[in-house]
Amino acid sequence: MDTPNPDNRGEFFDQFLDDYYAECDEHLVSIRRSLVTLEDEVDTRTVDRALLDNLFRSFHTLKGISGMVGLGAAEQVAHHLESYLRELREGTAVLSDTGFQALGSAVSLLENVINARRNDQPIPAIEEIVERLQAVSADSAVAELTTESAPQNSDDATVTSWQIEFTPTAELAERGINVNSVRSRLQKIGQLTQAKPVVKGAGEIAFEFIVTTSADKNALSSLEADGLTFKPVAVDPTPRTKEVPAVPIIAPASVVRVDLDRLDDLMRIVGDLVISRTRLEEQLTELKRSTPPAAWRSLQETSLSMGRQLRDLRESVMRVRMVQIGEIFERMNFVVRDLARESGKRVIVQLSGGETEIDKFLVERMMGPLMHLVRNAVSHGLETAAEREAQGKRSEGLLSLSAMTAGEKIVIKIADDGRGIDRRLVLERANARGLSNGNSELDDEALLTLLCTPGFSTRDEADRESGRGVGMDVVKKATEELGGRISLATKVSEGTTFTIELPLTLAIAEALIVSVNGQRFAVPQSAVTEVLEVESSATKVLENNEIISYRGRVLPLIRLARVFEMNHQRGDNFHVLVTGDETNAVGLAVDRILGQREIVVRAIKDPLAQSKGIAGATELGDQRVVLILDISALRQLAVTSKH
Amino acid sequence: MSDDLKMNNVLVVDDSPTMRRMVITSLGSLRKVKSTQAGSGLEAIERLAIEPVDLMVLDLNMPDMHGMEVIGFVRSHHAYRNIPIVVLTTKGEETSRTEALAAGANRYLTKPFDPRQLADVVGSLLHAS
What ipTM, to 2 d.p.? Predict the structure, then answer.
């Protein structure tokens, strides 16, 4: 197939690239979901017709829009996928295991081609996959393919078929009552077997639906209010054509697509507003003495209610940026199946909390790292069926992906019930590479630190599945750059769990404003578990480290003044911000806590101004810039500077 | 029927939102033309019921009502019989040009399409009616 792309046509279509990528993503998600279902139907000769129709249409659309933006490789792969699906649909080919694998590989390739174009990378070669698709399309069907019809509710004796008539008008459309909304309402009531337009006597258009349901008349009567009429009808008990369910990728009329950049703009404006309000609050404080109390109080009340409204606004904007994590889980599910097949392992994937929402920006940044953990779990964590059986385990390995929100954080867990990480092996390896600090015991955190050291890998060469340029060091770095935390729990022959905690959103955070040597810093509140007031005399020095006793344990202190090389005058009392869990707590010593604020996080982009221990900057009401501390980097400093 | 003040309403029917935007933007160069869109055959027919439509740009392979069925419906009803229909379908579609034209399509164009050619075709059909 040729791809016409002469003159300025390419330029014209370039303006639609963002729409193109967004639509491709939607189709790829829906394709993957269909493939997972389709896999169970391999070689069964009963294939769900609606599933094939949806797949066919997705490939068809991808082919069309790829051709428009001049991405010939994607157009061709989609074309061959579409052709194969047509053969399957028409029953001239049977879905064999080879065929399903070719389908899976071709979909991955299609995604890679689209991503390569998106990231300005060389477009991967497509010839091999195209040949594979052509080969499986030629697998002629020996027996006829039976198309599964929709499950009937016929075992229920009280099933009735209703004919519903809907006459669209501009007024109804304005109220959101249209052919799509009526149809989805009917699909909730029962099984829709027909949806067709008709012209009535006076020439007006109406739609006739037939829905089969065990629900009684009352379930339908709510429709009457919206001008729908209904009556029971006698229909052929086995309708030959099944109503194809509404394709989920078609955005309903009430959904709009918004460019992420525009949302970022919106978030930035909200951020500016937050700063202005902080300024207003400070000016109010200054005015307090010179203003009559009654007048000042009413001003203050207005300011406070504005603060609440601003918070609502911020939350609403944030909510717009949220996407369900389930979409990512589906993609992983797909990758796991591929990997399991290649490595001959049997894997059951358990998903939970897919409806948990996460900031779109975080998702995009965490995609690679999460994928790496999942690949690791399948290729290294889980054993083969034979190994598992020998240990008395169930032959299928269990991989569970879960997500949940906890306060201002989202917690993602990737757990396998495989062989666990062998600490002895990791330690030997670390010693061989000179990475060990002489410890003979490794707790989970020390183990993770070793695994995440650049250049450390327990395999001699990165194998294909888990390679792909992302190592554990990158996983850890990406998590921490986003203000998150990764932890590990592993037990030999029981399995490994990675837990990633991420902030719900990045742009605005609650922070403690502290002062050190007269300079102010902001500390993200999510990183602080407790604030202590300490007398200088209560500190002790142990191996060149300052410590205090805290809840019956030793709490090492980091003096911010020392980290940032300030000439510090110590007072009698100071404050300590406790960070980390009970087991690995570290205290940050500061002079004073000035207050608690909502801050707008701005990244420091100038490399000259970037510094270890600083995550970004924010502006408080008085227009002075305050640096935001990077707690995980500071903790790292504390660990590495035990001199 | 086009007097000088009247805007022509072009109904763009395609299940791909990206494709609809491409078509609508391509038609942007035409004077006195506004566009409405529909994402399926049923939606397209609903649009006909709600507002006057002067021309349809119609994809063929769509969920729940194939473009050919839309053509059949439009051509068999007196009130809509004369609406010009431009079929805009992806190359390799099973329905041939001959079938679509026989069913009542006025023109048959394939995707990838040339925006200028599409605008010319739409412009001349609107002018003729």
Answer: 0.85
In whole angstroms, what is the distance from residue A317 CA to residue A270 CA?
A: 8
Q: What is the rounded distance in angstroms from the CA atom of residue B100 to the CA atom of residue A320?
A: 43
Tell me whether B49 touches chain A (CB under 8 Å): yes
Q: What is the mean pLDDT of chain A?
A: 80
CATH number of the CATH domain containing A212: 3.30.70.260
Domain membership of residue A520 (yes or no) is: yes
What residue type is A556 in one-letter code? P
Among all residues of chain B, which has the CA nearest to that of A11? B115
pLDDT, position A508 = 66
CATH classification code of B8-128? 3.40.50.2300
User: Nearest CA of chain B to the CA of A245: how many Å?
Assistant: 8
- Chain-chain contact of B17 with A251 (C-beta, under 8 angstroms): yes
Least confident window among A49-63, A208-222, A457-471 = A457-471
Q: Which residue in the block uniquely carries the two structure tokens 């998150």?
A: A484
pLDDT at residue B14 in the model: 95
Q: Tell me if residue A482 falls in helix, strand or coil.
A: coil
Distance CA A370, CA A380 (A): 15
A459 and A332 share one domain: yes
**A153 in a structural domain:** no
Quick check: A66 and A75 in contact, CB under 8 A? yes
Residues in A touching B60 (Cβ below 8 Å): none
Sort strands A160-166 and A573-579 into parallel, antiparallel or unpaired: unpaired
Give the model confidence (pLDDT) of B80-117 as tens digits. 888 999 999 987 776 778 888 888 889 999 999 999 99
A127 and A74 share one domain:
yes
The DSSP symbol for B38 reads E
Q: Using the 3D structure, point to which of A125, A148, A171 is the last residue of a domain.
A: A148
Angle (nearest 5°) at CA A541 between A537 and A545? 130
pLDDT at A107 over 90: yes
Q: Which chain A residues touch B19 with a CB distance below 8 Å?
A: 61, 64-65, 68
pLDDT digits (tens, 9 = 90+) for A582-606: 777 889 999 888 888 777 777 665 6
| Residue A268 touches chain B, beta carbons under 8 Å | no
Q: Cβ distance A109 to A77 under 8 Å?
A: yes
Nearest chain B residue (CA) to A166: B46
* A95 and A199 housed in the same domain: no
> Do residue A311 and residue A348 come from a single domain?
no
Interface contact flag, B42 A170, Cβ < 8 Å: no
Half-sphere exposure of B75 (CA within 13 A, CB side): 15
* Neighbour tally for A616: CB within 10 Å: 21
The parent domain of residue A397 ranges over: 323-503
Q: Which residues contact A28 (CB under 8 A, 6 or more apart)?
A: A107, A110, A111, A114
- Closest residue in B to A24 (Cα) is B18
